[in-house]
Design a protein that fits this description.
Blueprint: H1 2-35, H2 44-54, H3 57-66, H4 69-77, H5 87-101, H6 123-129
Helix pairs in contact: 2-3
């Protein structure tokens, strides 16, 4: 009787471990493939920006309607949007442009770029910092 119970228990253990071994690769693949998606997910602000950039207004409209007010506020502040060109590349292009225009010397004019997330509200201060404050403003057209 005791030997029979041990045999039944041993068979149950073998069945359980055999099933576990058969399911383990499936579980591992599921964890590996599904575990990566939250980290590589494109933020809704970036998806909206990409839709606007390619001119797909219908998709952009649907994305805007699906965004929460917090996500919309982040978009307005420029959060969650990755620039397609790095800050250093833009600065280098500006320096190259001014060095090509300057015939009087090799010194390039360094232009300060707005920090990421800056908006139009700070535009006058950036213009003043880059030397545009001394320039004359064009007169409004006469009617």
């Amino acid at each position: 009787m005791k030997g029979e119970r041990r045999g039944i228990a041993a068979r149950r253990r073998r069945r359980w471990t055999g099933g576990l071994i058969a399911i383990a690769p499936l579980v591992a693949c599921t964890i590996i493939f599904s575990g990566c998606w939250p980290f590589n997910r494109t933020p809704p602000q970036q998806e909206y920006f990409n839709a606007l950039k390619i001119g797909n207004s219908a998709q952009a409209s649907q994305l805007w309607l699906q965004m929460t007010p917090d996500q919309r506020a982040k978009f307005e502040r420029g959060e969650g949007i990755r620039p397609s060109v790095s800050h250093d590349d833009v600065q280098q292009a500006i320096d190259d442009h001014y060095s090509e225009q300057d015939d009087d010397g090799p010194a390039s004019k360094h232009v300060e770029l707005a920090p990421p997330g800056a908006g139009l509200q700070g535009l006058p201060s950036y213009l003043n910092a880059n030397g545009a404050a001394g320039a004359q403003q064009p007169a409004p057209p006469e009617q």
